[in-house]
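From the shared-data thread, chain only:
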Amino acid sequence: MLFAKFLSKMSNYWQSPQLVQKSLVIVLCFLLIVSLYMSGQKVYSQSPITPPITPPDATPTPTPEPGDDSEPEDDSTSTSDSSSTSTGDTTDHNSAGEAPVCSDPAPIGLPELFQINVTSNSAVLYFTPVSDRVSYYYVAFGHSQDNIRFGGFFPSEKNKGVVIYKIDHLVPNTEYFFTVRAGNGCTPGEWSNWLPVRTTNSEYYNQSFYLYE
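Structure, as tokens:
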């Protein structure tokens, strides 16, 4: 009974041209979609994987191995001028571990400190120069010959006259012992004689001390 009703409705459906056309259009669209989907799956599954192409002239860059700390070679060439000289340093520097050696010759002769004029806070020294090879003089002084606590140097060249040097900031009414020596570069000379003095109580009062009285 139900099957007879279904056949009756289907016969009425196929008798309508518009319904048949719509059904055909729907079926064709469905078949077209299924066909496109299947063709896309086929193309995707068959597309080959192209490996990277290495140029024939390419040179690979070497990769350093772990622990290889070697430095790259430097093709640059460095040159040194062996004829250059130093004007201020005459000390010979030997190999590592050895003490430097001074090549300056010692001053010739030694000064003679023969007079000192003092006030309460200053002293003016008078001494004879060395004969040759001198670049400076060094004055040392203290409260005794065994207690040299002060000193200073000043540059000087070869001189035929008396050398005069002043020292300030002394303590009034205090005894000092003075000596002087020459120096030539890094080589010191011999010390002169000692000359003791005592400063005065006033800066306006002068007193002279002589080696030979």
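The longest strand covers residues 175-184.
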